[in-house]
Amino acid sequence: MAVINNGIEFVKDTPYRGKDVWYFIQSTDPKVAPVGSPAILPAHQESGDTSIEGDSLDEQTKMGRIIAASTNEDSIELTTYMVPGDKAHEIIIDAKHEGRQVKVWRVIVDPRLAVVEDDHKAYPAMFGYGVVDSADISDEDSFSEIDFTLNIIGKLADKNEDGTPGTFPLSDEQVAMLDQLYAFERPGEKAGEFADGSATSTTTTTTTTSHA
């Protein structure tokens, strides 16, 4: 009998950080988000959890155990602080009350994974249509926060219809804005304090993703 040794395969590198994974959402209400609308970045994201789950058929027979894949039950849970002007919690609450779906993207904003697309970069992403299972608002001594769970219809998609990896476009300027609250300024350039109480926004280029 021949001895088989096909070697091993491994990677030694720094893992990407949880703080570099951002979740974006978008309403499916055409009045709120018509074609060409930007994705919404929920403000001050605390944590995001993506669950790739599903039941299996599991039966015992006289010839042994039989296991087969059955269902996909992917879900995304996101916790964020509630900030005036942030459309995210309005989208989630409206979707829950009105029975609407929500589009959601999980994006790994790590420069090592970026690909160049024309005048911007794109980052690996998963996409899905979610149904709001619950939205819990907590009002305690600290900041008000909202925790919501999206049950994904079908399964999260990470590839386009042609099999290429799904990506999410972001410019270098937008990536820099994700990492800081404000930019450097010189004395006298602006008056007053940091814009506490005013909403700021930026838009991305059109995102093309596949359906699950």
Automatic annotation (TrEMBL):
Entries under InterPro entries matching the protein: Phgtail_TP901_1
User: Region (Disordered) spans which residues?
Assistant: 191-212
Ranges of biased composition (kind: Low complexity)? 200-212
NCBIfam families recorded for this chain?
phgtail_TP901_1
Name of the protein in question: Phage major tail protein, TP901-1 family
Q: What is the lineage of its organism?
A: Bacteria, Bacillati, Bacillota, Bacilli, Lactobacillales
